[in-house]
């Protein structure tokens, strides 16, 4: 399987959880920096794994790097069982175009291009999974519910939220469009967990003390690829259930 944006936060934790779970898994850690991917892989290997790990360079905003990653996976494995579109960027830049450009390029166009490029390899698998790591912040139902804690955005938070709502639509369209194949599509909310998404300071990484352990996000994604959530295929899942779109 291939995880995009695997060198930190949710991606790192998920690669670790999956590689430690079983010898049947070979996790390809895709990162825009091969150095970061290799150092993340070494850290996971040092903790002890049952499955295998490898790395590939992939920047979701660089089509050439996507094509090269697809060619490498094709040459080495000839198929892909699981694609996890996890990479994302957040921006609350005061300039509206700047924040929208970054969020849309990375969180919407990138995953759409990555999915289209890897799909032929996924469709060669007997039980393929296409997983999009989204956010409850992308739920239109929650965003329009005045009783929801995510009803109001932080200042300039609308670009990230709009990107995740768009990502959800991409996943839904893939799920419907490929319903006659074996492909199972999931949108996964990883929960509010420690990562670099909100910034690199300890306050930002820990979500001002409120963020949980990304290992839990990894365990949710593991449960999806182990088939435990198959009844929820085509939906927006989180650890404990399903979110409304
Ligand atoms: N943490 C949370 O509380 C939370 C909540 C809801 C949803 N999520 C979602 O969880 C996913 C993972 O985020 P995270 O929280 O783990 O944040 P993170 O630590 O910042 O991880 C994001 C990853 O995406 C990579 N990335 C960014 N731009 C990229 C590009 N152009 N090409 C390839 N990789 C790129 C980053 O690589 P670099 O290291 O090179 O920047 C990093 O590995 C995201 O989809 C995010 O929206 C997180």
TrEMBL record:
- Annotated Gene Ontology cellular component terms: cytoplasm
InterPro entries, sorted: Fungal_SecMetab_SDRs, NAD(P)-bd_dom_sf, SDR_fam
GO MF terms, alphabetically ordered: oxidoreductase activity
Record's family? Answer: Belongs to the short-chain dehydrogenases/reductases (SDR) family.
Q: Which Pfam families match?
A: adh_short (PF00106)
SUPFAM superfamilies referenced in this protein's UniProt entry, alphabetically: NAD(P)-binding Rossmann-fold domains
Q: Which residues form a coiled coil?
A: none
PANTHER family associated with the record: CHAIN DEHYDROGENASE, PUTATIVE (AFU_ORTHOLOGUE AFUA_5G01530)-RELATED (PTHR43544:SF32), SHORT-CHAIN DEHYDROGENASE/REDUCTASE (PTHR43544)
Name its GO BP terms in alphabetical order: secondary metabolic process
UniProt protein name:
Short chain dehydrogenase/reductase
**Species of provenance:** Lepraria neglecta
